[in-house]
Amino acid sequence: MMSRLQLENLTLARGGRTVLEHLEGRFGDGAITALVGTNGAGKSTLISAIMGILRPISGRVACQVPKERRAWLPQQLALDLTFPMSVEELIMTGSWPSHGALKGYCAAHYRRGREIMSRLGISHLAHRQLGELSGGQRQRALIGRTLMQEAELLLLDEPFANVDVETVDVLMDVLRDMARDGATIVVVLHDLEQLSRLADDVLILAGGHGRWATPASLLEHYAGQPPRAPRLPLTFPDTFDAGTA
Amino acid sequence: MLELLDAWLLAPLDYGFMQRALVAGLALSLAAPPLGVFLMLRGMSLIGDAMAHAILPGVALGFLAAGFSLPIMSLGGILSGLLVAMLAGSVSQMTGHREDSAMASFFLISLAAGVMLVSMGGSSVDLTHVLFGSILAVDTTALLLIAAISSLIVVALAVIFRALVVECLDPLFLRGQGSPVSLVHGLFLGLVVLNLTAGFQTLGTLMAVGLMMLPATTARFWSQRLEGLIGIAILVALVASSGGLLLSYHLNLPSGPAIILLAGSAYLLSALVGRHHSLLARLRRRATPLGAPESD
Question: Does the pLDDT of residue B17 top 80, yes or no?
């Protein structure tokens, strides 16, 4: 079966050093795939390659999602928080890639913007400046922009880091809905509990290779450990049965 | 009373050179401030200054080649400005050094080269003219050139406006869309060079930046919205250029510095009593109580 996002024998390098080798697999349409691995395992590198910013050494990323429907929420925000822009305006920028450079917004855009803000519980912040938002509020606004963009491929790098519990719940609901509508979602996660709540598939990156797993098999593997083991281990032992994705 | 107003505001406009100077100033005031707002928001406020120096050698070469011919000097200015911007951009990309250090090096080289060229070819009076301009000597050709360049800038800005906003706000978002960030950046710097070239005849290479940056930095004290910033900056520039012109006529002052100093006073005043971030706003700092409705 084909899916809109596939990795074909993908090898990626950063600064002359190979980071990931012979990556294979497909990300299910309408599925949320968790990307796990230690720092430096190549999660961000893989995301850059999927976004088409990093050219592979060999192999390829086969992505059928048009560019204006791809959204990327990096962990280290390049967002300039001193820029004079309100939450509503930020969310509206999500319509630019498909709407063109010159056309103004119509009433339908504003209505959609308001719906998105109320869905994310940030209607009361519509006219607040970006620089005045808390971490959680900012994350909600940025997810709002991807909703406005009607993203069909969504790449999130640790979206729940430094975000309060309530925001995590809201964002997870929204992501689930987006997946139900058919969006392909890839999300970098470190928290096993969050992973079990959100992910349909898991792609583990370790030692320069990728291995597919299911959340159930991953949880089973760590069943004996404290119920909320917050961090995944540094390496994955060979004995670890990844299950079938 | 009316007579006084007439004598101050309208009588100077009986002269052709004052009419042309006013129109040139107004045209520049529409094009320069939006560029200044974006430069300021990108933390590139001093890049305008650097670019102003970068057009000098081209202007000087044009002057040496064709005498005091504005179109030739402008063409030279545009070419050398773009060349310096490109060189600085590629050096910083090649070496990984920050763009501002490359820019600083190149504009210093340009400034020295420009001054050297001017003094080889002409007297020191010419140098003063190129460096500080004279808005009162704008002829019809110059006026047409200034108006054409200003119109081009306004139209081009409108076309790249959204890309420019996204590039300032979140360059990764733009890159993710597959838009070449460097193209937008390059186009923007090109517009800055064009604007400085249009400004050098009236304000001089050194002070053309003033009409770009001072209105923008002034507007920052009055608005927190991009549209507001641009609108207010244009308003400040319009008032400063027409007011400065009248002051220079009545008090027999050099026109360029009069215009820029007027814009400068607007900046200083705004820093004291502006609506946002000013000294006064800081003193009157209050907070709405919890639960009160948002007031904006």
Answer: yes
- Exposure pattern of A119-130 as b/e (b: 16+ CB <10 Å)? bbebeebbebbb
In a domain, A72, yes or no: no
- Indicate the residue of A70, A82, A84 with minimum beta-carbon distance to B176: A70
Of A63-67, B30-34, B107-111, B174-178, the range with the highest mean pLDDT is B30-34
In chain A, residues with a C-beta closer than 8 Å to the C-beta of B225 are 84-86
Last residue of a domain, one of A151, A179, A204: A151
B253: its two tokens: 């002052």
A132 plus A26 within the same structural domain: no
Q: Which of A86, A120, A151 is the last residue of a domain?
A: A151
- Mark yes or no for CB contact B229/A84 under 8 Å: yes
Q: Do B226 and A85 touch (CB under 8 A)?
A: yes
A25-34, B50-59, B176-185, B274-283, range with greatest mean pLDDT:
A25-34
In-domain check, residue A110: yes
Domains of chain B: 18-211 (1.10.3470.10)
The CATH number of residue A209's host domain is 3.40.50.300
Q: What pTM, to 2 d.p., does this model score?
A: 0.82
Output the average pLDDT for chain A.
84
3-state secondary structure of B261: helix
Residue A70 lies in a domain: no
Residues A226 and A127 in one domain: no
Domain count, chain A: 2
d(C-alpha B241, C-alpha B263), whole Å: 8
Give the Cα separation of A221 and B153 in Å (integer). 63
Range of the domain at A231: 1-65+152-245
The answer, for A84 touching chain B at a CB cutoff of 8 Å, is yes
Any A CB within 8 A of B171 CB: yes
* Cβ <8 Å between B165 and A71: no
Residue A96 in contact with partner chain B when CB distance is under 8 A: yes
Residue-wise pLDDT for A93-146, tens only, equals 888 877 766 677 788 888 999 999 999 999 999 999 888 888 889 889 999 998
Residue A88 Cα, gap to closest chain B Cα (Å): 12
Closest Cβ–Cβ partner in B168, B175, B177 for A80: B168
Determine the pLDDT at residue A234: 42
Could you tell me which residues come within 8 angstroms of residue A118 by beta carbon, excluding any fewer than 6 positions away?
none
